[in-house]
Write a structure and sequence with these properties.
The complex is a heterodimer of chains A (116) and B (114). Chain A is mostly beta strands. Chain A contains no helices and ten strands. The chains are: A mainly beta (116), B mainly beta (114).
Amino acid sequence: GAGVSQSPSNKVTEKGKDVELRCDPISGHTALYWYRQSLGQGLEFLIYFQGNSAPDKSGLPSDRFSAERTGGSVSTLTIQRTQQEDSAVYLCASSLRPRASTDTQYFGPGTRLTVL
Amino acid sequence: AQTVTQSQPEMSVQEAETVTLSCTYDTSESDYYLFWYKQPPSRQMILVIRQEAYKQQNATENRFSVNFQKAAKSFSLKISDSQLGDAAMYFCAYRDNQGGKLIFGQGTELSVKP
């Protein structure tokens, strides 16, 4: 079956512009995660959606970052007023049963964001 | 807060040889999960192997095995009979038993010499 997909693959934007990054999880997966991978900070958690529960937003670095998950499927990560330090690869992952011992997070190919 | 540390930014191994990647972590939990992920240049993170903390037996997946030392909070990955396709960035990760986020180490870039 299809894996996690993300679009766009690459995004170049100017400082101060807003950007939207999209993630399509594996069909039927109840949990969806966003991570950011940057040279200075490594791989860091941003936000986690699980079913109808309130999302865990504890990793969002500032209020310029937000995310939503519509209909329990597709998710959009929005960065407002982008800054150069937002340049990174944004990875999305999904999993079927996040509390199960056998649960595995499957990752998409990421979106490389470059802020000029 | 839980932390994961990979102290080897880069490692190199000769094809067909064995290499061990190190990972240590810090947690006050007794039940948790540990993972090794591989990230090739394509950026796609691929799960290599997992270990449940409550299991004493070290996990094995074909040429990949772990040495899990719970008391020492150490979780190393051994790759046997290294192949050119093993060249990638390897990340160690921690997840608690409530599910949710993975906490990653800084990564180890593995190169394989023919």
